[in-house]
Amino acid sequence: MPTVAVVDYGMGNLRSVCKALERVAPGHRVRLAHNAAELLDADRVVFPGQGAMAACMKALGAGGLQEALLDSAAHKPFLGICLGLQALYDFSDEDGGVAGLGLLRGRVPRFAAGVGNGGVRLKVPHMGWNQVRQSTAHPLWRGIPQDSRFYFVHSYYAEPDNPEEVCGVTEYGISFTSAAGRENLFAVQFHPEKSQLAGLTLLENFCRWDGTTG
């Protein structure tokens, strides 16, 4: 039975992610990965996260997970969620500036509170349901209508250097990257496990994905 490892580095409640994966992929073994060996043994990896970037990177290093995470992201189907998207980039402005994993080129700035496009006053964090415009075809979008709504909770957003790695965009005062990927790696700013049918479809697609974009 293939294994899906959900990276557990001590940040956030991962129960909802595991339960959602178990629901859409009954033919897979879903388990929390607490160490490098469990991560390296898995067939596919989900890297979720909530909280602060500095604490995330410190926990990955202290737990010996960072190298195994980089190894997995090099060749296995890999899904980042929320902070698990932001941590893939070179640098985040959070906590005074924190280096990320550098798997994707770019930085992670904070939303500027105030008046956005159309005169709408924006609150930070960006929290609640919002649309995602699929900007490129990808196997993980299969069966998900264009402009479907997903659930977001975040104050920072990815600003990629390479526009070809942008897979989805969302409007919140600015147009920001809400999904990104390349090769066997895909990551989203929203929480698919909290996004009802569209989110469950994305997770199901991930569990069926062979890690190619064809």
| Helix-and-strand structural type | alpha/beta
Percent of residues in helices comes to: 10-25%
Mean pLDDT: 93
Terminal residue distance: 25 Å
The dominant shape is globular
Low-confidence stretches: none
Helical run tally: 6
The number of strands is: 16
The CATH class name reads Alpha Beta
Strand order of the largest sheet: 2-1-3-4-16-15-14-11
Number of domains: 1
CATH topology (fold) name: Rossmann fold
The CATH H-level homologous superfamily: Class I glutamine amidotransferase (GATase) domain
Strand residue percentage: 25-35%
User: Could you give the order of the helices and strands?
Assistant: EHEHEHHEHEEEEEEEEEEEEH
Rg to the nearest angstrom?
16 Å
Main beta sheet: 8 strands, mixed
Specify the CATH architecture.
3-Layer(aba) Sandwich
Task: From the structure above, extract its key features.
alpha/beta, Rossmann fold, eight-stranded mixed β-sheet, four-stranded mixed β-sheet, 16 strands, globular
